[in-house]
Structure formats: C-alpha cells, structure tokens
Design a protein that fits this description.
Chain lengths: ~110, ~110
C-alpha cells in the first residue's frame, strides 16, 4: 500500500505569515489532492495538483491564498498564505493508487 | 453533483453493542465507495472500500455492502470496542471525475466500557 507523509505534522503560526506543507508519496502518482478539514467539520477539497501543469482549484479557493507546487510525480507542496485564525485546520494531501485513495497523516495548523 | 449523506451523530454505545452508521449517496456515474476513520488526534485512515455493486468491504470487524438499488453503503460492526471510538466518514469517488472524493459530514462514535 502507498505511504504518504506530510511535514509539518503540527505547527502554531502567527497571523499574517505563510506556511508551506510538504507531501511525499512513496510511489509515482499522476494526481495529488489537497483537502482542508476545519475544526469539527468534514473534509473539503482545495485543489488537484497534476505534475507539469497548474493546480485546479475548487470553488472558494484561489491560487493567491493556496499556491501549490507539483515538481515531480512523488511530491507536492501547499502554501497557506497570509494566515488568519480562520485558516486553523487540518490540511491533508491524498493520492489515488489503483482504485484506492490514500491520505497523509495531516498537518494540523493553528493560527494565533 | 456527487454527494454523500451520512447519519449524524454523535453516537454513544456500550462495549459489545452493535453499530450501524447509515450512508447514502448520489452520483452520476459508477462510484467507488469508502469508509474512512479518524481516531482522536490522528489523520484519516482508510477503513474499507467497495468498487462495484454488491461488493462487500470489510476490515477490523467492520463491514459495508455497496447497494446500488438503494444507493447506500451502511457501515456495521457486530461488537464494538472502546478502541473503535473515532469519527467515521463515508466518501465516494467518481472515477470519471478524476478521483475527487466527496465526503459525508462524519459521525462521531464513542464507545464506553
């Protein structure tokens, strides 16, 4: 089975700063996805990251706020820019392998 | 669009009780269906899955059957343990939609000794 690792696992961030989350998959995958889970809520898809092209963002999410990189088939980053307390969430990356979709452990961000 | 409707919680049970969490879906294609579990303070783990009608997914004593006629994927466990306390998410992936997952709202389950 795929292993997806994320860094950082947790962080406390100052308002107005930016933080980049890294996601590493132990196999090459065409698509990677970034989700957000706000406190006590379900998961919402932020964007789809394909290697060699710009990320595709879902309604309500924009590139200026959540820039994404996808330099190769095993790695992606999500930056949360100009953070506010409303950005306090768990950010998860995921990737499909076969007909199963795997998730990283999540990056738990608290903005103060 | 695709959507998942999940039984709302919280659900509180005693050890060895029977657990059912209802999940129904709406999809245009032939989705794959998943149950994910999130233990306290942890990330999301795949619990089980089913990729076509009448498939039964099972893991750790949990089962769910893909029912196309009722568009359902209810999660069941015959005898829960305290360690099953977690949030359970039903989700679907419509492969024609590039494997994006649509999640239910999540059901918090607490099992008491």
């Amino acid at each position: 089975s795929a292993v997806i690792s994320q860094k950082p696992s947790r962080d406390i961030c100052q308002r107005g700063t930016s933080l980049t989350i890294q996601c590493q998959v132990d196999s090459q995958v065409t698509m990677m996805f970034w989700y957000r889970q706000q406190p006590g809520q379900s998961l919402t898809l932020i964007a789809t990251a394909n290697q060699g092209s710009e990320a595709t963002y879902e309604s309500g999410f924009v590139i200026d706020k959540f820039p994404i990189s996808r330099p190769n088939l095993t790695f992606s980053t999500l930056t949360v820019s100009n953070m506010s307390p409303e950005d306090s969430s768990i950010y998860l990356c995921s990737a499909p392998l076969g007909n199963t979709i795997y998730f990283g452990e999540g990056s738990w961000l608290t903005v103060v | 669009g695709d959507s998942v409707t999940q039984m709302e919680g919280p659900v509180t049970l005693s050890e060895e009780a029977f657990l059912t969490i209802n999940c129904t879906y709406t999809a245009t294609g032939y989705p794959s269906l998943f149950w994910y579990v999130q233990y306290p303070g942890e990330g999301l783990q795949l619990l089980l899955k089913a990729t076509k009608a009448d498939d039964k997914g099972s893991n750790k004593g949990f089962e769910a059957t893909y029912r196309k006629e009722t568009t359902s994927f209810h999660l069941e466990k015959g005898s829960v343990q305290v360690s099953d306390s977690a949030v359970y998410f039903c989700a679907l992936s419509d492969r024609s939609n590039d494997y994006k997952l649509s999640f239910g709202a999540g059901t918090t389950v607490t099992v008491r000794a």
